[in-house]
Amino acid sequence: MKNALMDNDQYKGLLAIDRNLDRLNKGIELLTYLNPLNSEKEKQKFFTSKYTEAPKFRYPKRNFNAFKLQQGLFLNNLEEIHDDHIRTLYQSIIYYYSNVLQCSDVIGEKKKFFYNSLRLYGAPKERDVQNAKFIIHIKNQHQDDPKIYSAQDAISYFGDFVKNYDFLMNIKLSTSIAADAMVSNKLQTLFVKKNARFSENQLKTLANHEIGVHMVTTFNGRNQPLKIFSNGFPKNVETQEGLAVFSEYMSGALTLERLKTLAYRVIAADSLTDGYDFADTFDLLHNQYKLDRDKAFIITLRVHRGGGFTKDFLYLTGLKKVYDYYIQNGDLSLFLTGKVSLEHQSSITRMLDLGLVHKPIHLTQSYNHNYNTNKTIDFILENLR
Q: pTM higher than 0.90, yes or no?
């Protein structure tokens, strides 16, 4: 199919633009530059100051010229794409890549970064905040899931888990990621935080989230003739995180505690858009919502890094959208074709019909059967607005 696309004169313009966008976009992965290098040191300073001295995070050095890359994006002659539907998609993709570049270029520059983040991800709506509060106010079930596993144990667990899939990925320790584990699409690598401790259910959660979806869509995207499926569609983050949390649900790993964490991220992102600084958001989570200080810190860090990063509210909105789609349609494989989004379903379907896209080689195995037995989780997902 790939050769047929290359040999078809009708799509030579499309292929040339797609390859050029891939060349310009290579190496620009926002989260790679956004994870603070000194988060542990700054956490201790913040705690020592009795939560008053805002952390001063340092970020990885950026090794690209954003202006030149953006210039290159807009020099593409989209009139060479003869299909109106596909041309419109590529236009939105160019604007999306431009926004990612702008965001990456101003990490640490407070308001500049924050406003670029808003352009990329938006901000929580009142409905999203109410959904979060609905989850937070549900009474906790008794859970005894101690964190007895080390980062090295996690690497072994993930190494065994990936044997269920027909792809090879790297698993490495990292001292500079905000989450306990994170996938790099560009490097096809799962990074595990070096000093993290894991519970048994957390390992299952992360494996189904990071490998079962993020790695699956990484390798499916790389297999596509069109590189936009690897580099990402507009709004792909909400869909990808929704698919990943839904994989946790289907595997039976999603807990009320996990949903509450996602809800607190919405509350934190909302506080950011309301003008709260780092200490204010931390105070809201730690003192008003009674989160322990380590959890409150990591959620606050995730939202305030770079100058204000609103992405985290999308986990909950993405989960609801994916859940509703699954209830109505059942089959999610269309959205495993790469880093795509629910909003562009018609574009993906059209490109499949035209032979421009492969069906996904790798499928999320947790989607084969619903192993969730927690009625509270079902109740929440059914009643989110």
A: yes
